[in-house]
Amino acid sequence: MTTAAVLATGLAFGEGPRWRDGRLWFSDFYRHAVFTLGMDGVETKVVDVPGQPSGLGWLPDGRLLVVSMLDKKVMRLEPDGALVEHADLTELADFHANDLITDNLGRSFVGNFGYDLHHDMAERDVPTILGDESAGSTTLARVEVDGSVHVAAEHVRFPNGMALIDDGRTLILAETLRLQLTAFDVASDGTLSNRRVWASTAPQMVAPDGICADPEGGIWVAAALGNAVVRYAEGGEVTGQVETSQIAYACALGGPDGRTLFAMTAPSSEPSVVDGHRLGCIEIATV
């Protein structure tokens, strides 16, 4: 097991990390903005997102896409700095829009909470919630380059982090409340088929939140119930683990050599604990 080092502090709740152009890009829910961070720990604000930012992606021409959680939209950052609506997810998202992944054609897949998880957690314990198949059951959306919105997959439970592997031919989806990584074949038109369990995270009680793929085909999973990022191989074998100082909610691979694992950590995901308190961190380890 490897122990992560803290690279940056002072986040409220970091999400959606992506390595691009020599910097880590990430959203901060409760500072309502997207930022970049260099390996020197210097942070730069990119754009304010009043509706609470989450998942990040890019169109082929380099324009940034960002999920605006509370109004269930994907926003697009124009070259002149204007943040404009790219897609409206209100017909498919049952609660806050959340994570996003964009392929090299500019097509995006977007998840949502499915329901008010924080309210549920205040009334029921985690095992009860996990055992309720209706909790967080919702639709994964597909957003085309033109902003049109389509159903990608139905009856997914709290669809969260995603990764594209096999040159984009396979989508791996973290179903947080199902404690599993679910795989789909991706057709040339973006439709998904051959849904299957890629890895169960239930034996380790890992609730998969943000995920990222490494060049060897492993999937690193932020364990939203614990202080760790765990690597899974297809079939469910645990093949690596990075211990973090706080609960890990999202992760990305990058850095100068591509082997730096970035983990977005916080003491809790409960808004009353983290909103306004700047307790979040970005932690790193070489993997």
Task: Explain how this protein is built.
- By secondary structure, this protein is mostly beta strands.
- It has one domain (2-286): 6 Propeller (Neuraminidase), CATH 2.120.10.
- Helices cover 6% and strands 54% of the residues.
- It has helices at 117-123, 126-130, 271-274; strands spanning 2-3, 5-11, 14-20, 23-28, 33-37, 43-48, 53-58, 64-68, 73-77, 83-88, 97-102, 108-112, 137-143, 149-157, 159-165, 170-175, 180-186, 192-200, 208-213, 219-223, 228-232, 238-243, 247-254, 260-266, 280-286.
- The strands form six sheets. Strands 1-22-21-20-19 form a five-stranded mixed beta sheet, with no helix packed on it. It has a four-stranded antiparallel beta sheet with strand order 2-25-24-23, with no helix packed on it. Strands 3-4-5-6 form a four-stranded antiparallel beta sheet, with no helix packed on it.
- A hairpin with a 5-residue loop joins strand 19 (208-213) and strand 20 (219-223).
- The longest helix is centred in the middle third of the chain and has 7 residues, at 117-123.
- The protein is globular, with a radius of gyration of 17 Å.
- The chain starts with a strand and ends with a strand.
- This is SMP-30/gluconolactonase/LRE family protein.
- Belongs to the SMP-30/CGR1 family.
- Residues 13-266 form the SMP-30/Gluconolactonase/LRE-like region domain.
- Pfam families: SGL (PF08450).
- Keywords: Hydrolase.
